[in-house]
Amino acid sequence: MRQFILYCLCGGLGVSTDYLVFFLSVTAGLWYQGANLLGYLAGTLLSFALNRVLTFGMRDRVAQRLAMFLGVAAIGFGASAALLALLVDVLHFDPRIAKLLTLPMVVVLQFTLNRKLTFNAAQRAAASN
């Protein structure tokens, strides 16, 4: 539970960055899925930098972990894009509201995958042996 709280705090900065970039991009007239990609990438990179050290205490194999984190982010992005399409194109939500509605599900999905794959403590123990 402690990790999840730290993940949410660090990720909160990433999510805030994601949403700010998304909101500004959509407001400026960018297609909502393009804005989603830009925001998602900015938030993901910040989230990785913070969570790697603060939440999961990992300082080893940075490039490998970044690749795994981006892989997990791609899964989260796919879920986000699909939910946005449903909410915006089918249910006719404002994209700025729809994006807010997708965030909780994507946070839980990515925390679970990152905890099990990217920042797995068993992987760290095996690597040190």
From TrEMBL:
Which domain of life does the protein's organism represent? Bacteria
Tell me a GO cellular component: plasma membrane
Q: Output one GO BP term.
A: polysaccharide biosynthetic process
Where does it localize? Membrane
Q: What is its main location?
A: membrane
Q: Where do transmembrane segments lie in this chain?
A: 7-31, 37-54, 66-91
List UniProt keywords, sorted A-Z: Membrane, Transmembrane, Transmembrane helix
Q: Which InterPro entries match?
A: GtrA_CellWall_Glycosyl (IPR051401), GtrA_DPMS_TM (IPR007267)
Task: List, alphabetically, the Pfam families matched.
Answer: GtrA_DPMS_TM
**Membrane topology type, per the record?**
Multi-pass membrane protein
* Residue ranges of every copy of the GtrA/DPMS transmembrane domain listed in the record: 7-119
- Which family is this protein grouped under? Belongs to the GtrA family.
What's this protein's name?
GtrA family protein
From which source organism is this entry? Answer: Duganella rivi
